[in-house]
Amino acid sequence: MRLGLYLNLYGDAADRPSLDDAVEQARLAEQAGFAWVVLGERHLHRPGYHEILTSLTWIAARTERIGLATAGIVAPFYHPVVLAQTLAHIDVLSGGRLTAGFVLGYRPEEFALFGVPQRERVARFEECLGLLTRLWTEDEVTFKGRFTQVEEAFLAPRAVQAPRPRLWNGGRVPAVLERTARMCDGWTTSFNELDSDLPGKIEEYRAYERGPGTLGAEVIVCREGYCAPTSQEAREALEAPLRDLYEAYTGWKRTSADAGRYAQGWDEIAARSVIGSPGQCAERLERYAAMGADGVVLRVQPPGMPQADALRAIEAFGHVISG
């Protein structure tokens, strides 16, 4: 089972513009045998959230082997050519370590910030990923879309990976699963996807017809995670900062169908997470593998958790990885 570490990019009043903690975690995850570090995207948060693409570049320059993934970039906010060029160059600079994961976005405030009508998000997403994929794989592209037009466009330098970096897409509804199968190479679940729902959704995703040029149908399960000598120690380290994060989510996701899942009790949260002793965490990871997951991305540090606690969890998961 490949593991990813979801890095905490939230800033605070004493941490601008530093990413020192994220770099320290990424380096430790690399040593511990994690397959990826994974970055998310947020806007309009106080006291701040580090921008995803520059942060990815910063971490790429300070690591050597670990994969660099996003889960995910809000594709409707970007001009497809700018995004294709930037991500290709990150793949070049990192020596071919990029996996580009995307999402539709859900916060009305963020769409207003970028001047993008939220009703256009699906059309913009599909146009963006379609053009990005063509720019990554074709010598020259002429395209006249609803939002973007290019004439004899090409990228130089091209991404290192051949035929291109892998694409992930996140979401939970059938339309997202179908779109992921058609346009991408992997599906990233929601962090709050219920374990009981996962087997059916994995089966549904893999049943959809793959689009031309796609590179597989991997499943990446996103989960809260904390590994400690005992399950009680894991809970003591994670519960308070995670509850603070979930309280914030109830506001951010007020327009989302899954907002209610952030008001659940600890037992319900733990039941869909990888939290506990090394043995318990290994057992939970084996369970996800049996469901059909190819990898698990762990969020071990909600905002407010001390760096030392996060590092201890990463190191402990390294022991789980090594067996």
Task: Give a summary of the structure in a few sentences.
Its EC number is 1.-.-.-. The protein has one domain: TIM Barrel (Alpha-Beta Barrel).
Structure description:
Helix content is 43%, strand content 17%. It has eleven helices and twelve strands. The protein has an eight-stranded parallel barrel with strand order 1-2-3-5-8-9-10-12, surrounded by seven helices. The longest helix is centred in the C-terminal third of the chain and has 22 residues. The mean pLDDT is 94. InterPro entries: Luciferase-like_dom, Luciferase-like_sf, SsuD_RutA_monooxygenase. Keywords: Flavoprotein, FMN, Monooxygenase, Oxidoreductase. It is an enzyme of class 1 (oxidoreductase). One of its GO terms (molecular function) is oxidoreductase activity.
Topology:
Blueprint lengths: L1 E5 L13 H13 L3 E4 L12 H10 L5 E4 L2 E2 L5 H14 L4 E6 L4 H7 L6 H17 L3 E4 L4 E5 L12 E5 L3 H10 L2 E3 L9 H10 L10 E10 L3 H22 L13 H6 L2 E3 L1 H14 L3 E5 L7 H16 L1
Parallel strand pairs: 1-2, 1-12, 2-3, 3-5, 4-5, 5-8, 8-9, 9-10, 10-11, 10-12
Antiparallel strand pairs: 6-7
